[in-house]
Design a protein that fits this description.
The complex is a heterodimer of chains A (480) and B (417). Chain A is mostly beta strands. Helices cover 14% and strands 45% of the residues of chain A. Chain A contains 8 helices and 21 strands. The radius of gyration of chain A is 24 Å and the shape is globular. The chains are: A mainly beta (480), B alpha+beta (417). Chains A and B meet through strand 2, strand 5, strand 13, strand 14 and strand 15 of A and strand 6, strand 10 and helix 7 of B.
Chain lengths: 480, 417
């Protein structure tokens, strides 16, 4: 009995909660206190299964069996004509039981890492919590939150304020589940100048979080990063203090039907560079405790532009970013410690979104449009220093990365069945294919059956590093 | 030379006098507002009502009032085995007087507006542009120009009903804010916001509250005074935490998976210039104009039961799409000659077959300077699939100004999480 409770308690909770709710007719977002407080959320089980056990390094069948509880609440604290104050928060906890149900997977990975990834850690359970104070054209948002500036799907040029959690399902989840909220202050000011010019300022006083990666041996662990390095990533994370300050400004305007934004963000890189200090390295390797990685600062200038084009009946999107003085390791010495050199990196995305009636499909889906979204992305490393170690999605000697994405989505039977397909392809050969079908049953239940096929010519480049991790998954979600 | 001057003067005087007589006659003839029934016709209706008011109509006795029902509605009431049990009650006709602002604006602007061959309206400021319409296009513009209190905040709940499987699914709850920036008649500033430099006609915000997978989506669309300009639309998508520009090209697309399309909102919510119009006839029909009951759908029943219907004199107008690829080839619309709402319409597919019907039941509510009607329930029925999307409206307020910044993308960002 104890064993059942230990391994299956999320599922049991799910069933019990369903039994409580199923009696009611409409159990959805609830509003209390005359609509001032609203609460909603979901319970979810996400199980991912890999059909080709033999090809994976850990030889496991299950890559995920994650049960999640998510609660979202908003409260209007004060409302009057002069100013409004509201609070918003989200709670999330999960239990990852893939190590419990799959012995091969469990053996391949370090036991100590299981507890790290088994559930949400301490303070992280409170994902977001902030207060909004609005008065006329001015608004300030203080607390743990997510700031999004970009227009691109999947490519990060402007969306670099919050780091990503790539530890449990790489980057294949919805943005809101991937992103790591951090403590910051955001301010908006809406002017009455021509073009509706707006200003937004972001200030992160002390909180710093690097990109969260899975340890080696785990399903989504990066093979080239060994466990000692992975542990040192965490040790190298700067302490929370005012030296971590990051600041950004965004200016927006509307011009002839186009929404145009420009931004500047002075940041600390979410991805580290290896130390160039030989003494530190020797000490760290021999005795431990040394910070072998650095999260270096650089400046990002960028912008976005979107608008509707009447001729093509599509929304056109573009985003660009220039990382000035981004730090990279170089292998000039041939052996560690590597050197650290600066280089500027320019990237852009152009794309379009177009809901389209497909004549043949229309007979099947009752004239529901197919949403077509395409993007082209290019990144240039400007004047790369000799021996530079490229970002992991680029080849060892490439200075340019070109990639394309295509998203197709439609609804059948009044959107109770929603098939979606995402394909990404890089000209260097790596790519992935993510098909899924969402099925809505009744008021509260949602089922998503999906999969991922990943490929790449090299085990060290792009999604090629996960090329043996093709999976099918099922998400069962109870929404309330 | 002298003779020529005399001749010119004579012509000018004649022109002036004839112009005076014409305009005098026009103003003398114009009696607006026009109730559906007056004088002897009203007495005739009252006599009919003595026999029918308070009676419940269902499949057993619907034949007796068939002449007052659109054929498609009669078909549904008559055949409960296919469409489920439908009944309604007959109530007396009650005149709904327009607001003072609408009366003044209409009388001030009478005779000035015109429609060209491309269905574009000219010389209109506010009010009803054609108090005594003669053509289908004029009726359509009257329907489009009325602002129903200038502003509105309403909450809608909608369901999906499968008549064949006898199942129903809750589709969602949405909060709607609508405000006119120009063509206003009731709430100051009239007729237009003084700083409306971008030429807004109307702002519309949808905020999806339920179900969870649509929760937090906020859709903003802006319509412009320039009727040749397409709407602008944006949506805040919580899963991405960003505002996305939306294409307004596919207004024939379903709203959130329902049977109704974006264009079906309020009967027709597209640009008037997108159709050709043909005035078919006047028809007295039983329509819900004082029906403010919250008509919760019952499982498997395609249509609302329990509506209160009164005799209303309606214009029947054919809306024929100019776009051959549009989802509907045409609509037959019943437009209330008193409130200028569209209580009922039949929609036809590209092959010209009857596809859907949409009904709106409304009731008058207090607004600035009088009463305006608002929609309390609607239902789009797919007659081919025996499928429906009934919705209930809960008006929050009408005729109170909404801060204009509500209709900006920055507001969507600031309101989003």
């Amino acid at each position: 009995m104890k064993k059942i409770l230990k391994y299956h308690h999320p599922l049991i909770c799910l069933v019990l909660l369903n039994m409580l709710f199923i009696m009611k007719f409409d159990v959805f977002a609830k509003e209390y206190l005359n609509g001032k407080l609203d609460i909603s959320g979901y319970l979810e089980n996400f199980t991912a299964y890999r059909p080709e056990k033999s090809r994976q390094e850990d030889r496991g069948y299950f890559s995920n069996c994650r049960s999640t509880f998510y609660l979202e609440a908003g409260y209007k604290l004060l409302e009057n004509p002069r100013y409004n104050i509201s609070l918003y928060g989200t709670l999330r906890n999960f239990y990852e039981s893939a190590f419990d149900i799959d012995r091969d997977y469990s053996r391949a990975s370090n036991r100590k890492d299981h507890s790290r990834l088994r559930h949400e850690n301490g303070n992280e359970r409170l994902r977001e919590f902030y207060a909004d104070i609005a008065s006329g054209p001015f608004q300030i948002r203080i607390g743990k939150q997510v700031a999004t500036w970009g227009e691109a799907d999947g490519f990060r040029m402007a969306d670099i304020i919050n780091p990503l959690d790539q530890s449990w399902h790489w980057t294949f989840e919805a943005w809101e589940d991937l992103v790591i909220p951090i403590w910051m202050i955001r301010m908006w000011y809406q002017t009455k100048l021509p073009g509706d010019i707006t200003f937004e300022m972001v200030y992160i006083p002390y909180d710093f979080e690097p990109t969260r990666l899975a340890p080696p041996g785990m399903n989504w662990g990066v093979p080239s990063i060994n466990r000692q390095f992975w542990l040192n990533f965490k040790q190298s994370r700067p302490d929370d203090d005012l030296n971590n300050g990051e600041i950004g400004l965004r200016v927006g305007a509307k011009f002839k039907g186009w929404d145009i934004y420009l931004h500047d963000f002075y940041t600390r890189s979410d991805d580290p560079v290896f130390t160039d200090n030989a003494q530190k390295l020797i000490k760290g390797v021999l005795f431990g405790g040394e910070k072998l990685f650095k999260y270096m600062r650089y400046n990002v200038v960028g912008g976005t532009i979107t608008g509707y084009n009447e001729w093509s009946k599509a929304v056109l999107r573009a985003e660009w970013g220039l990382n000035m003085g981004q730090k990279f390791n170089t292998t000039l010495t041939g052996t560690p410690p590597f050197g650290i050199r600066s280089s500027d990196v320019f990237a852009y995305m152009i794309g379009f979104d177009r809901p389209t009636m497909v004549p043949y499909l229309s007979a099947w889906n009752n004239y529901r449009t197919v949403f077509i979204s395409m993007q082209m992305f290019q990144r240039y490393i400007l004047r790369p220093p000799p021996g530079m170690i490229r970002p992991p999605d680029m080849g060892a000697h490439d200075t340019t990365l070109t990639a394309f994405t295509l998203i197709l989505e439609s609804g059948f039977r009044n959107d109770s069945i929603i098939p979606t397909m995402l394909v990404a392809y890089s000209t260097s050969g790596w790519g992935f294919f993510l098909p899924s079908v969402k099925y809505k049953i009744g008021h509260n239940w949602r089922f998503i059956l999906g999969g991922s096929i990943l490929w790449g010519p090299s085990k060290t480049e792009g999604t090629g590093i996960f090329r043996n991790n093709d999976e099918i998954y099922l998400k069962v979600r109870y929404e309330f | 030379m002298r003779y020529k001057n005399f001749k010119l003067r004579f012509i000018l005087i004649i022109l002036f006098i004839s112009n005076f007589i014409i305009s005098y006659c026009w103003s003398a003839e114009l009696k607006w507002p026009n109730p559906c029934y007056q004088g002897q016709k009203l007495e005739e209706v009252r006599t009919w009502e003595k026999q029918w008011v308070g009676k419940t109509i269902d499949s057993t006795n619907v034949d007796q009032v068939k002449e007052f029902l659109p054929d498609t509605y009669y078909e549904r009431v008559k055949n409960p085995e296919k469409w489920g049990t439908i009944s309604f009650t007959i109530v007396p006709y009650q005149y709904i007087k327009p607001t003072d602002g609408l009366i003044n604006a209409t009388n001030d602007g009478a005779g000035k507006a015109s429609v060209d061959n491309n269905e574009v309206l000219h010389n209109w400021v506010n009010g009803i542009p054609f108090p005594e319409p003669k053509t289908g296009a004029e009726i359509a513009w009257n329907f489009d120009c009325i602002t129903h209190g200038d502003t509105e905040h309403i909450t809608n709940r909608a369901w999906l009903i499968d008549g064949k499987r006898k199942t129903e699914r809750f589709l969602g709850r949405v909060k709607i804010w609508r405000m006119y920036f120009s063509g206003r008649t009731d709430v100051q500033p009239i007729p237009e916001f003084p700083d409306n430099t971008k030429g807004y006609r109307r702002g519309l915000v949808y905020f999806f509250v339920e179900p969870y997978d649509m929760r937090g989506i906020r859709n903003l669309s802006i319509r412009y005074k320039d009727t040749t300009k397409e709407d602008d639309s944006w949506a805040y998508v919580p899963a991405m935490r960003r505002v996305r520009r939306m294409s307004t090209a596919q207004r024939g697309d379903s709203v959130g998976g329902g049977d109704n399309t974006w264009d079906d909102t309020w009967g027709w919510d597209g640009h008037i210039r997108r159709n050709k119009y043909r005035f078919l006839k006047m028809q007295e029909v039983l329509m819900g104009r004082h029906s403010d009951k919250k008509l919760q759908p019952t499982k498997g029943n395609i249509d609302h039961s329990g509506t209160q219907r009164e005799r209303v004199n309606c214009y029947v107008v054919e809306f024929i799409s100019k776009d051959p690829d549009y989802v509907y080839s045409k609509r037959i619309c019943w437009i209330d000659s008193e409130t200028w709402r569209m209580p009922y319409e039949d929609q036809y597919d590209q092959q010209g077959r009857l596809w859907k019907t949409t009904e709106f039941t409304a009731a008058p509510v207090n607004a600035k300077g009088g009463m305006v009607t608002t929609v309390f329930s609607s239902n789009t029925i797919d007659m081919q699939r025996v499928h429906a999307t009934p919705a209930i409206g809960y008006p929050q307020f009408i005729g109170e100004n909404i801060p204009p910044e509500t209709f900006t993308t920055d507001y969507l960002i600031k309101l989003g999480h």
